Amino acid sequence: MSSPTKEELLRKIDDAPLLMSMDAARKKLRKPRSVYADQILLMLAVMVLSIYIYGFRSLVVCICSVACCAITDMIGCFLCKKEYSFKDLSNVAYGMAVALMLPACVEYYIVAIGAVLAITVKHIFGGKDNYIFNPAAVAIAFLIICYPQQVLTYPELGTELPIFGAMDVPHVSSIESSFIKNGALPNLSMLDIFMGNFSGPMGTTHILVLLVSGICLLFRKSISLAATIGGVGSMALISFLLTGSVDIVVFRFISGFVLFGFIFLASDPQTLPVTTGGRFIYGLSLGIIATIFRNSASIEGIFVFALLITNALSLYLDRLWFDIKRLVKQAATYLKNNLGSFERMSMDAKQGKTHSLTDTQEIIMQPVNYNMPPIDNKVTKVKRKKKLGFAEIKESFAELFKKKNKPINKREVSHGNSETDKAEENKTED
User: Fold this and answer.
1) What confidence tens digit (pLDDT) does each residue in 176-223 have?
2) What is the CA radius of gyration of the chain?
3) Residue 24 has pLDDT above 60, yes or no
4) 186 near 178, Cβ under 8 Å?
5) Cβ-contact 190, 244 below 8 angstroms
6) Residue 176 to residues 173, 203, 250, 299: CA-CA distances in angstroms?
7) Which sign, positive or negative, has the C-alpha torsion 81, 83, 86, 91?
8) 173: part of which helix (H) or strand (E)?
9) Half-sphere exposure in the Cβ direction for 118 (13 Å, CA)
10) Residue 5's CB: how many other CB atoms inside 10 A?
11) pLDDT at 111 over 90
């Protein structure tokens, strides 16, 4: 086995803080099995309402979807030589999510295709803990593209559907389709909205039950609070800024798969980032992409397509959050050590505080005594020479001429002669 190169070692050193923070974040999260159990329990409540409205065909659709998911998972584990675990509740959760996002009058073969595709995508990426995209979102996106007429038309509210046999009941479009075609909001009161008195997928129109389910999952920590706040907040804010209407904002959440998707699909523990900051960016991206699709695209079910794009980005969001946090920390440290450092350090020095030195902090040297004489702090005035005027210059020249014309003394002249001259001079004086 070859030893790691220098670049690989440096990469591991750089990734060490990120891996440590991700491991610490994983320890605080709930186990995926308990999260799926909570989702299944609340989706059963939604299914009961669907059975009350459309009959037992809704129950058969859900059973068909869950059974196809379980059988496909068994076959996938057999082909990949893995042991099938009956404790894995993700298959049940994905099967129920696929069924509840379909109309109650959908054909069973379409349900089977969606369920098989969902678990096949799961095994294509390596099975449990390895897949990137939410399997239920992949299945619904595929069915919308391939079978739009069967998937995007719904029976009238309160129609009793037969369990088997041909569907001769009249089909209607959803409120989302009516808004896309006509550009007008449906005439629904707030009571109709909360009670789900409008046509749509058999599990996404029960707004009051979905809101209660979301609150329960938040308290159970089965939904990421950061991702939910980021997604719902960004989508609501951008929609209100673009339209200026609260009614349109409410309509965008109750139509399509938006509310159901935020509760049961977006917070899938297998596709969510690990860190809290990464999850917030994940939700923010999902809300922005969903709003852009809703404003530019004229198709239904845009939420699942936005979710698939966000799932592809979630692999890098933890690293992005780590880099953002590191840059902010470096900027804050730099500003703390350099902004107003002279005034701050002067005040701290007066108060007797000392600080540990950093790479960007200036070093203050202690004063050194070089045997200098003491300073008495007295101010000494320096006498400056006055500038000479014309009269002073004239007097100085006159004195200079007087010195030149002065008679010369013999003693002064003979001062610089030799010794013989001094002897002769002494004789003459005698």
Assistant:
1) 777 777 766 777 788 888 888 888 888 888 889 999 999 999 998 888
2) 45
3) no
4) yes
5) no
6) 8, 15, 12, 9
7) negative
8) strand 171-173
9) 32
10) 9
11) yes
Token pair, residue 352, equals 């007797």
N-term to C-term CA, the chain? 122
Rounded to whole angstroms, how far apart are CA atoms 138 and 193?
28
pLDDT at 102: 92
Tokens found for residue 394:
């004239």
Q: Give the residue among 286, 271, 275, 284 at the shortest CA–CA distance from 322.
A: 275
Quickly list H helices, 134-188: 135-146, 148-151, 175-182
Q: For the chain, list the domains and their CATH numbers.
A: 30-329 (1.10.3430)
- CA pair distance 393, 210, nearest whole angstrom: 110
Strands 153-155 and 171-173: antiparallel
* Tokens coding 398: 């006159």
* CA atoms of 32 and 129, how far apart (whole Å): 10
- CA dist 304 and 138 (Å) reads 8
CB atoms within 10 A of CB 340: 10
**Can you give the pLDDT at residue 278?**
87
Measured CA to CA, the distance from residue 352 to residue 356 in angstroms comes to 14
- Main-chain phi, psi angles of 222, to 5 degrees: -90, -10
